[in-house]
Specification:
- GO terms for molecular function: protein-lysine N-methyltransferase activity.
- It holds the Pfam family Methyltransf_16.
- The strands form 2 sheets. The protein has a 7-stranded mixed β-sheet, with helices on both faces. It has a two-stranded antiparallel ribbon with strand order 1-2.
- The longest helix is centred in the N-terminal third of the chain and has 21 residues, at about 105-125.
- It has 18 helices and 9 strands.
- The protein has about 500 residues and is α/β, with parallel strands linked by helices.
- Helix 6 (about 75-90) runs antiparallel to helix 8 (about 105-125), helix 11 (about 200-210) runs parallel beside helix 13 and helix 16 packs across helix 17 (about 380-385).
- The termini are far apart.
- It has 2 domains: about 5-125, no CATH class; about 135-485, Rossmann fold.
- It has helices spanning about 5-10, 10-15, 25-40, 45-55, 60-75, 75-90, 100, 105-125, 145-150, 185-190, 200-210, 215-220, 240-250, 265-280, 300-310, 335-345, 380-385, 430-445, and strands spanning about 130-135, 160-165, 230-235, 255-265, 295-300, 325, 360-370, 455-465, 475-485.
- Residues about 120-125, about 170-190, about 285-290, about 390-430 and about 440-450 have low confidence and may be disordered.
Length: about 500
């Protein structure tokens, strides 16, 4: 079945019967069960849930579930469905004949009321619950021969994660991201889109479950780690899907690991803690007895770490990680530089005689968008991880009067005060281009701290195909950058 056909099948605007046509009880009942599936599954009785499960079996393909997920988060579809329910209840279903249809109008109206009431409480809470099951039934294909060289490590038990997607904060409120500056609260909303689950994290989670060794050998086998626990962090975790998939996979393979999910915005962190608690239990429960796989949530400010690196600040007590995961976290040219500095501060340096396959790794996965303000942002990753050169060869940034655009997006901290001059105007295309040039030059400055004869570099580049009904329509494909330490080239300071 085509994507359009599936959308027609599940979208309320196309699948709900027209009430003016006085549909029979069977069609009304089927429509009500479908709306409960989308918006209020908790409102169904056990018998009603069994009917729904039986009807879903006809459409077992993952593409059908993707279509359902798209309908759930579509605001216009939701509004239409709520209006349809309201009109149905107001009609009283006067045309339903219980003797003929074997179901009473009162029973149908009761079900409609339960669905509408359950949906109202969900909207009041402002959250949508989403269930993910990996591996996806239709495999994600990508042009990488390593996938054929490294055998799939699928467990007989699927990976199941339940997430709460929160709404964006209202644009008429203030929060911790903007009370310290003159930034409008729309910036707060832009920074908080981490409360939504984005396409790249879904796509790469499927690859992680199928081929964990492509991310780190310790995910597939911990036999070479001795008694050491694998340390994993997700940066810009958002709803935490990718990091929690890794944690669940290690649980099921009896691995030992500490998984830390990090983000900046307070609403994102609150939602992230909820998701971790729902899937792994609260942090209190993880204290006694110690769990083989622990999952925790921490605040992390990329810009602060970027400043530390540029100033040569070395925090020897900061915990290091074997694996860093980043999915769909770059929405402005400067983000790639902040991320490089964060990886530099957090990624453990490899042991000299260590097996190369067990060396620490960072993986950045981002959507390629062909149009709009995010077009070409993948190039900022390439620029950020270029080999560093001597700072003396660079022009002074103080000579430039170019303002810095403030139109940033997901899960990123408010920009530094020195960038505040452009707060009240939207960046033009030329403006963004000039910023890109400045930030590229900025990335080449050599930090004062020693790099111990090694530096970060892009080790591999891969492409992941876009999956039908996953992600935004403007996403063409996904780029996957594998980052690691490599010996410092001759241009490095000695």
């Amino acid at each position: 079945m085509t994507i359009d056909a599936l959308a027609t099948l599940v979208n309320p605007t196309s699948c709900l019967p027209r009430l003016k046509a006085e549909p029979d009880a069977a069609h009304v009942h089927s429509a009500l069960l479908h709306l409960s599936r989308l918006y209020s599954p908790q409102s169904l009785s056990k018998d009603e849930r069994n009917i729904l499960v039986a009807s879903d079996a006809e459409y077992a393909a993952s593409s059908y579930q993707d279509a359902l997920d798209s309908a759930k988060v579509d605001g216009s579809e939701r509004r239409y469905a709520m209006d349809w329910l309201t009109r149905l209840i107001a009609s009283g279903l006067y045309w339903i004949d219980e003797a003929r249809d074997h179901i009473s109008a009162d029973d149908l109206l009761d079900l409609a009321g339960r669905i509408l009431g359950g949906t109202a409480s969900l909207e009041e809470a402002g959250a949508i619950s989403r269930e993910f099951r990996f591996p996806l039934k239709d495999p994600i294909l990508f042009s990488e021969e390593a996938a054929t060289l490294i055998p799939s490590a699928l467990s007989s038990q699927p990976i199941e994660i339940v997430l709460r997607d929160d709404p964006l904060p209202p644009s008429n409120t203030q929060s911790e991201a903007n009370t310290q500056s003159s930034t409008g609260s729309s910036q707060d909303a832009a920074a908080a889109v981490g409360v939504q689950t984005w396409g790249a994290s879904i796509v790469v989670s499927d690859v992680l479950v199928r081929y964990p060794a492509l991310f780190h050998r310790g995910l597939a086998s911990q036999s070479h780690l001795s008694d050491r626990r694998l340390r994993i962090a997700e940066l810009g975790a958002g709803t935490g899907l990718l990091g929690m998939v890794a944690a669940r996979m290690l649980q099921q393979t009896n691995g030992a690991a500490d998984v830390v999910l990090t983000d900046y915005h307070q609403q994102v962190l609150k939602n992230l803690e909820h998701n971790v608690g729902q899937n792994f239990g609260s942090a209190v429960q993880q204290i006694e007895p110690p769990r083989k796989v622990s999952v925790s949530v921490e605040h992390l400010d990329w810009l602060e770490m970027h400043h530390e690196i540029l100033q040569g600040v070395v925090d020897n007590d900061r915990p290091k990680f074997d694996l860093l995961l980043l999915a769909d976290v770059i929405y402005a040219p400067e983000h790639a530089l902040w991320i490089r500095s964060s990886i530099e501060a957090l990624l453990r340096k490899p042991i000299n005689d260590q097996d190369e396959a067990l060396s620490p790794r960072a993986h950045i996965i981002m959507a390629v968008r062909g149009t709009g303000k995010f077009e070409g942002l993948f190039q900022t990753v390439e620029d950020a991880f270029k080999p560093r050169v001597q700072a003396s060869a660079l022009p002074s940034l103080s000579d430039s009067c170019t303002d810095t655009p403030m139109d940033t997006m997901p899960g990123t901290p408010a920009l530094a005060p020195e960038f505040a001059t452009a707060m009240n105007s939207k960046a033009t295309a030329q403006h963004s281009h000039e910023l890109h040039i400045r930030m590229s030059a900025f990335s080449l400055q050599q930090p004062r701290a020693s790099m111990e004869r090694s530096e970060l570099t892009i080790l591999k580049r891969r492409k992941l195909d876009k999956r039908a009904s996953v992600g935004r329509d403007d996403e063409q494909e996904y780029l996957w950058f594998e980052i690691g330490w490599s010996p410092c080239i001759s241009t490095c300071n000695t």
